[in-house]
Specification:
With about 100 residues, this protein is an all-alpha fold. The protein is built from 3 helices and no strands.
Length: about 100
């Protein structure tokens, strides 16, 4: 029973974080000359040092998706630097499987 309650709290935390991010869409960002490819059916990995613009690039992709008619509720964005994730372990995330 205690495990079930913990999973429900974890799920509520995720839902809260997702809902908060969705309210922030669209992001107030300046367009860049370099753009991430979307619609290529490929996984794109963006690496770089801190504060080089990785999250901004993702925000620009989200803005582009919104312009094409994708609803904000269809976009899942979670920043794992959120303080609510500090005490979570890998097992917490695994509990969402299946």
């Amino acid at each position: 029973m205690l495990i079930k309650i913990a999973k429900m709290e974890l799920r509520k935390t995720f839902q809260s974080i997702i809902a908060l991010h969705q309210q922030e869409f669209p992001f107030d960002l300046r367009e860049r000359t370099t753009k991430l490819p979307i619609g290529s059916n490929r996984i794109v990995t963006v690496t770089g040092i801190r504060r080089c613009g990785k999250s901004s690039q993702l925000g620009l992709v989200i803005n582009q998706l919104l312009k094409t008619g994708i609803r904000r509720e269809q976009i899942l964005y979670i920043g794992f630097d959120d303080e609510r994730f500090i005490s979570m372990t890998l097992e917490n995330f695994d509990s969402f499987k299946g």
